Amino acid sequence: MNTLSNANLVKPEQDEKTPEASQPEAPAPNFASTSVPRHLARGAVGFGLIAGAIALVPLVGPAALLAALPALIAFRGCPTCWMVGLAQTVSRSRLERRCVDGVCTIAKADGRRPNAEEARLDGP
């Protein structure tokens, strides 16, 4: 009797592109501010709230740590997020990412300040 065994079947080769590779990349998180002084002010508020919360623990107790929660809003996350945003804010005025037809390059910024619409989209 001549029967085919599943072990002897050869699967056809699949295309090299996988569904994951064909999907576009997600945009990188943006923690930058519209200006360096504004970003530094947010950092001063955030670090001040954290320092105040820690300093008040002996007087008020653990409830004083609730003052650190608004610091997370000022930092737009954690202190590391604030540092990343500082680097993005500083580099934004020097470098610019340009994407044309799916090809992205980094070039020197043209030196113009963002208009009101761009500043509104950028956030505080």
TrEMBL record:
This is DUF2892 domain-containing protein. Residues 1-34 are annotated as: Disordered. It comes from the Bacteria. The chain crosses the membrane at residues 40-60. Keywords: Membrane, Transmembrane, Transmembrane helix. It comes from Streptomyces filamentosus (Streptomyces roseosporus).
